[in-house]
Amino acid sequence: MSGSIGAPGSTATGAATTTRQGNATGLGGDFNTFLTLLTTQLRNQDPSQPMDANQLTQQLVQFATVEQQTKTNATLENMLALQQAGQLADAASLVGRDASVAGEVLPLQGGQARVNLPASGQARTAQIEIRDTAGNLLRRSDVTLGRGESRWAWDGRDQRGVQRGDGAYRIRVSGRAADGAVVPITTSVTGQVTGVGRDGGDVVLRMGATNVPLSQLRDLPRASS
Asked: For the CA atoms of 132, 135, 141, 143, what is the dihedral angle to 10 degrees?
């Protein structure tokens, strides 16, 4: 990942400038190549058989079209870079706060991890499975859903009571109806935002060792519990 937040303004501006310069170089190269080909063709044509006026007109139209596309693409790239820079600056205000995000990655921070569960409905219970990055099952827990939304906390200990280190873990939550049938439910996890950055063209929130796209942000709890 590149462009992590330390100084939001300088990082965002530098990334935007790099993007614009790279795209401008590519577009400018294509435009100059087209111009070179056209002028070379005119310079080397047979004077006794000059290029047909209609054909020349068509090539000039193509020339103008390429020029317009170059300018349009450059403008769009600039707008996109500025938008991403603004998102990065806005996301910097979340550093130090708790955030609830969607996804299947559970951040363990300070020996604590939190899973947000929905209210009871068709699903009466939720089965929570936590695995390491290799896919090994570390913890399984069946939780009864209440009348309102609830939170399940993991202390970082596996089924044998061994304390696991802080990091990113895989989580899977499935609902269970009264008859035991599997029922889809919507969940999220809560962690503290420790930094923000960019991963390709996406702004991401860093929660310890976990990187989550900003688009997966679901809530900003007022206080952790």
From this structure: 100
Q: Identify the architecture of domain 98-219 in CATH.
A: Sandwich (2.60)
* pLDDT band, very low/low/confident/very high, at 90 (cuts 50, 70, 90): confident
pLDDT tens-digit readout, 147-177: 999 999 999 999 999 999 999 999 999 999 9
pLDDT above 50 (res 87): yes
Place of tokens 């913890």: 139
For residue 170, what are its two tokens? 């895989």
* Ordered alpha helix ranges (H), the chain: 8-43, 53-91
SS3 state of residue 89: helix
Contacts of 41 (CB under 8 A, 6+ apart): 51, 59
Taking the C-alpha atoms of residue 58 and residue 55, their distance in angstroms, rounded to an integer, is: 5
Instruction: Please check whether residue 169 is in contact with residue 119, taking contact to mean a CB–CB distance below 8 angstroms.
Output: no
Amino acid letter, 73: N
Helix (H) and strand (E) counts in the chain: 2, 13
Q: In Å, how far are 105, 110, 143, 154, 156 from 163, measured between CA atoms?
A: 18, 11, 21, 11, 6
* Tokens linked to 137: 């099952």
